[in-house]
Amino acid sequence: MDFRLGVCQTPVLSAPKELQPYLEAISRAETPGLWLFPELFLGGFDLQRSQHWADQAQEALALLSDFSRATGHALAGTFLERSAGGFQNSLYLLSPELAEPLKLYSKIHLFPASNEAKLLTPGAGAMVTPELRGLRLGGCICFDLRFPEVCRVQAARDVHVYLVPAQWPKARLDHFTLLCRARALENQAMVLAANCCGPSPLGEMPGASMLVGPWGQMLMDCDDQPGVHSTVVDLDVLKAGQRLFSTRTSPVLDVTSRILA
To answer: Start and end of every CN hydrolase domain (predicted)?
Structure first.
C-alpha cells in the first residue's frame, strides 16, 4: 500500500493567513497524504506573548481542520496551548477521519539553553499513537529527539512513522540528521522530520527537513528554502523489513541495576 508523506518547511509565521501558500501547494499533490509542519511554526519561541500565540493557534487549527476535511489531506504540527500549569508545546494531528484535532503529546524535555524551560510546562500525560489509514503514528518534538526513550516507549505500540517537528538551528544540523537516522534505525520505523528555515530567536534555521527509512536511509531530504516536499512510500516494504528481524520484541535488559549493583 502506498502512502504520501510530506513536510511543509516554513519560516516562523506571524499569522495563520500566512499558511495559505503552503496549503495551496499541498492541494496540488497528486494524492492525499500526511503533511508535517515544523515546531511552533506559528509565532516560534516568542514565549513572552504565549497567550497571544495560543489564541492564534486556535485560529490556525480551525483553518487547518477545514482544509483537511475539504481536501482529504492529514496535517500535523505543534502549537502553544494553555494548560493547568501554564503553557505547553503540543503536537496535534488533523485529518478528515477525526471529528476534532487530536493531541498526541506535549513536549517533555524543554530546551535549557532558551527561555522555553522557564516559560513553558513540560508534558506529563500519556502519549497517543493514533492510526491513520493503516499507519501507526508516534511523535517526538525537537529536543525530545535527544532522548531515545521517548521513541522507544512508543515502539512497543508498533509505530510506523515518528513525526518530528523541530526548530533545530544550523549550528547543530549534523546532530539533527544523525539523531533522526538513529531513531529510525533503532526503532525500525520511518522518521518524518519538519524543520523551520530562516531567522529565528534560536539562531538561523537551516530547513533540511527529511524522511528517513527504517534502515536509516534517507528517503527525502530538503534544502534550506521554504516550500512543501513529499514522497510516496510503500508501507508493505516497511512492514516486511520489520518481519525480517525485530528490535521491538527483544527482552529489555535492566542495565541500570547491573551498573549500580
So the answer is: 3-237
